Amino acid sequence: MASRIRALLGRVRAQVADDLRSDPYLPFIVLLAGVLCSFWFWHRIPNFATRDEKSRLLDAMVPIGRMLADPSIETLQNSVEWSRVPFGPTLYLFGLALLPVLLVAVLVGDLWAFTELGYPDPEFGFYPAWHTTPEWIWTWSLVFVRLFNAAFAVGAVYLTYRLGTELRDRATGRLAALVLTLTFGFLTIAHEGGEDMPALFFFLLALYLLVRYVRAGDRTTFFAASAAGGVAIAFKLTAAPIVLLIGIGFVLRAWGTEEPTWSALFQPWLVVGGALLGLVAILAGYPTFLVGAVDPVLERLFGQSVARGNRVTGPTAPTWWWFLRGYFSGLGLPLFFASLVGVVASLATLRDRATYTPAYALTVLPLVIYLLLFSRWHDFRVHHLLPTFPLIALLVALSLIGLREREPDIGTAVIALLLVTTGIYAGVGVGGYASMPRDEATEWLQDNADGNATMEVYRRDFHDAAVPHDMRINHLFGPEDDAEAAAIVDCPEYIQLGYRDLLYLKNGTYYRNGRAQQEYFRELLSGEYSYRIVAEFGPRPPNFVPDRPTPGSLTDLFHVGLVPQTDQFADEQELAENQYTVILQRDGECGYGRFPPF
């Protein structure tokens, strides 16, 4: 087994080296992907881009800290089980990213930040733990986490190139990789730490290995595809369609041999061995399972996965509206319409490409499966659509390269137009990371607020606000215990409102309704409580009322596909348009009558 693994890794290294030597354009595509995926990757640091990014990092920090403070089997079990949910390999991945930070903490005498972390208080999104831990630990932990994520994104671009090459030729691979590199929804996920991008990488790796197996029939490749698919599922349950695809790939290989079909299909050791490898990869990917907590993992795999389709996280709207919203935002209108035409055109030419049927089937089928899967959900977001982006890029590239062969002038012009328009959309979107309103608000507070000033916020989680690491905070969302209530300042120096707070001012918004909150914010903004606006960051919504696309309205959605950095609806990495932040400062005596309804 070990020799087979070494041989497989050797073939991988040889393939990568051969591609970089043989294709003069590939190094530039990889370089472009690296630049776009990592441009201004430090946005929001030392704060977090998403709630998941924060919880995954704490999931790794808590076991490390607890084991350093009290090494024992019981400590390991309790600290691993502490995680918000049993998300799997991100604990290993984030733990690896933490190693250099841990080493430096030992050298500079800050190891106490890990050993005294304990089991953090969840108040205000674990703000007390974040506030008391040295800022440099969060900064460099997030730097390594996001660089890891960007590396997986670049790997996904290369695997898309490989799939395109297997599908047809290097030109198809180049164009598919370039289209994916310029897909804005793909680039946004590359700018956060989490499980989505690693899951995509291993999904594409499994798919590529499966295509190679169908072509050559090498059993080691089939086993490797099964293991990679299991890792992908452990990272993200939405990678589960790879199980069906592995079965389809096995059948396609049986059909493609000279043996009788039933004889080729009867390979129990191959089927059982692949299934066991995938299962082991999934279970080993859950540290919670390895320390003996089986029930949470089973609930995650078989309970939450089924319930997600019916979980309400957004407004009730037709399925087509959710698809258009996600793809308009993730692709931009030029690439969306090119994708629509390209996918249809590539399907229409299937009969003319008999020699490419197995690879083609393993490109089309997962796209169909994902579209059917999400069509059964109440709602979904851009990051859920992530696995479909490289599949769409492959089919678009396939149809455009075919057009260029038939009509060289027209095909070249269409490809150039698509790349330029999509590149502008993606370039403007990625460039927006350099001027995020919350980052600018944080810098303003660091430069202008006194060291002992208190700021009041009304968010459930501090990553939703512009919060300097060393600033005192009034957090007024939800009931406080006696200690929290005693720490609240009656008349703080500053009050901060953000885009999500202002949703209370918009009648009929999904779940952020409340007459008391609406009246309080309107009075606060009009100067009713001796507070005046001293700074704003990002474009102010008209009369402070955010304008979101109406559920079910097609015309409202076009703005989402024309302007990058718009609201992607509940994807936690909020982009510039819904990062609008307004800072109010008290300009009078501390009076009475201000009762924030939170």
Structure description:
With 598 residues, this protein is mainly alpha-helical. Helices cover 62% and strands 4% of the residues. Among the domains are: 158-296 and 310-433, no CATH class; 437-538 and 580-586, no CATH class. It contains 27 helices and 5 strands. α5 packs antiparallel against α8 and α8 (135-167) packs parallel to α11. The model has no long low-confidence stretch (mean pLDDT 89).
What is shown here, in short?
The protein is mostly helical and about 600 residues long. Among the domains are: about 160-295 and about 310-435, no CATH class; about 435-540 and about 580-585, no CATH class.
Number of β-strand runs: 5
What Rg is obtained from the alpha carbons, in whole angstroms?
A: 26 Å
Overall mean pLDDT score?
89
- Oligomer type: single chain
Helix content range: 55-70%
Strand order of the largest sheet: 2-1-3-5-4
Query: Which stretches are low in confidence, meaning pLDDT under 50 for 5 or more residues running?
Result: none
Q: Number of helix segments?
A: 27
For the termini, the CA-CA separation is 60 Å
Q: How does the major sheet shape up?
A: 5 strands, mixed
